[in-house]
Amino acid sequence: MPNIKSAKKRVKVIAAKTELNKAQRSQLRSTLKKAELSLAEGGENCAEVVRHAIKTVDQAAAKGIIHKNVASRKKSALVCKLNKIG
Questions:
Q1: What are the E-state strand segments in the chain?
Q2: Is 67 within 8 Å of 28 (Cβ atoms)?
Q3: Is the model's pTM score more than 0.90?
Q4: CATH topology for 5-85?
Q5: Are 50 and 35 within 8 A, CB to CB?
Q6: How far apart are CA 28 and CA 9, in angstroms?
Q7: By CB atoms within 10 Å of each CB, which of 5, 35, 51, 73 scores lowest?
Q8: Which interval of the chain is the signal sequence (predicted)?
Q9: Domain-by-domain residue ranges, the chain?
Q10: What's the rounded Cα separation, in Å, for the pair 4 and 15?
Q11: Which of 31, 66, 62 is nearest to 49 (CA)?
């Protein structure tokens, strides 16, 4: 446990940021799962769901939740699956 005042504050700030990052990463994973499910079922609004998932991935990469190369890979996989359907 830190003794210095600034170190104590850093512990609090890091804990708060960690919780926020966990929530945003969870939301990203949920969005990606919804897109995958929509593509597997072949619903009529697949393109809309994939577009929303790509936007979410871009936002996560911009905020530093995921690396930009990971974001690019996920977007590419979604578009590839969408092209195979339609």
A1: none
A2: no
A3: no
A4: Methane Monooxygenase Hydroxylase; Chain G, domain 1 (1.20.58)
A5: yes
A6: 29
A7: 5
A8: none
A9: 5-85
A10: 17
A11: 31
